[in-house]
Known about the structure:
This protein is α+β, with helices and mostly antiparallel strands. It folds into three domains: 3-222, Aminohydrolase, N-terminal nucleophile (Ntn) domain (Glutamine Phosphoribosylpyrophosphate, subunit 1, domain 1, 4-Layer Sandwich), CATH 3.60.20.10; 232-378 and 455-527, HUPs (Rossmann fold, 3-Layer(aba) Sandwich), CATH 3.40.50; 532-591, no CATH class. The protein contains 26 helices and 17 strands. The strands form three sheets. It has a six-stranded antiparallel sheet. Strands 4-5-6-7-11-12 form a six-stranded antiparallel sheet, with helices on one face. A hairpin with a 2-residue loop joins strand 2 and strand 3.
Amino acid sequence: MCGLSGEIRFDGGRPDVDAVRRMNDRLAPRGPDGEGLWSQGPVALGHRRLKIIDLSDRGAQPMTDGSDAAATGVFNGCLYNYQELRRELQGLGHRFVSTSDTEVLIKAYLEWGVQCVDHFLGMFAFALVDHRTGQVVLGRDRLGIKPLYLAPGPGRLRFASSLPALLAAGGVDTSIDPVALHQYLTWHATVPAPRTILNGVAKLPPATVRVVETDGTYRDRHYWQPSYTRRPEHDGMTTDEWRDAVLEALRVAVRRRMVADVPVGVLLSGGLDSSLVVALLADEGQRDLATFSVGFESAGGEQGDEFHYSRLMAREFATDHHELMVPSTEVSGALDAAVAAMAEPQVSHDVIAFHLLSRQVSEHVKVVQSGQGADEVFAGYHWYPRLAVPVRADAADAYAEAYFDRTHADLARIVQPHMLPGEDVSMQFVREHMATPGAETALDAALRLDTHVMLVDDPVKRVDNMTMDWGLEARVPFLDHELVELAAACPPELKLAHDGKGVLKEAGRKLLPTEVVDRPKGYFPVPAIKHMAGPVLERVREALEAPAAKGRGIFRDEYVAELLAAPEEHRTRRGANGLWQVALLELWLQKHGIN
């Protein structure tokens, strides 16, 4: 829930409250239910509120500790165990004036310092001003579900829940980072933290607490990372025992994410992952659960919806089901709105689907659970068997061969020379990550990379951006950190079984119709984009032929001309449309006023 922003001054000056107000205004869709500004000394904080827990004004932010005003904070997300923590903190002598999880977060910091995050179960990004020391503490959840962007400037640091909010404040270096561009074009638009596509904006990495001193220096605490090795306590576990352990951990994760003072729905694609969420909620006694699906008109001979399976699930568990069928003629119009909602450029087609679906869902509920993350955590994608190479040292090469869109040599004929790093920085990143201690097998290493890097800066970011643009909070039980720890320890062969997600499919057989468990792997298709249908192609051509694009000089002119001359023919190694990847970046830059 919510959006946060702020500015810290290190030069003795006062923060620019108007700049924080502009950031706050840009974050309005993330928090349509309230707003607040606070400024004291060298720090100003802004907040937009989406009311999910403690709907009263006592939950408003920025919030200052009520006992001795020792800390002031802003918070985006949800602490699913806030009620348990509240009782624990009360036992330690803390007094509360609200029933909000924000107040629990602040009291937890005052009790445990930066170790407070070790006590949290949930998704969160926060900024806390410690009035006792003058320090500002920034934090982000273990899986990076909630974002936090940073923009340093002369004598200051600004931060916000989205990159466009920082642009609204002004004073951002908007030049393109060649390393990030290399990653964007190589790694299916994944730009790992701390980088973004812009030189002037960074991201706080997941599972990180940053303590910023009054002089601008800082120190980071990286507080969580599963080992991706087999644990002694799991020795001798049978396949059935792993299945039952995974199912119980998922059940707990789903139950945790029902904590709210408003109704909670589910995004139901009809695939295994979202269907398991629905089934577990029904098993927990939920009745008349609101479920939501989206589909598109077929194009290029490709089916555009999966309604058969979502309807099957809705009937099986008697949900209050809603469908949204989007005509192809509406996709091009929806494209600009979705691009505007992107904190960073995102090329996957389902970004449009999530944006349109979120608009519909937000008319019914404020909170939904989603099946996002299961494929990365439980090895569900078709390329994972290729990553299970026998020699651990070959993991990086296998990963690049299976997942990268392009090679470094390919990029030399795509981007202008001044935008091309002198070395293969994307491959270097993967090699360094794969060489990090832990991760017993090549597949373990690949899943670690996907779960803690790719997942964070591609699928998870898409879901957060598209839902929060409509004031809708999406919760992702497959990214419960205890479930992720269990999956990381699960033997790779159990995850690869049954064409991927084997242990999860076995869990599904205890709850779901066989047709859902054994169905072919589905995706969120948007055929009008995949096949560059008329209006979408016209919008793409308009963006790439605009003066801003030509003046920017990112891509070689002859390459762009080739793409536009044959929109369907240029595919990446993974089969993605090359024109779409190039155009999406330009669309995003133009939509956010970057010239």
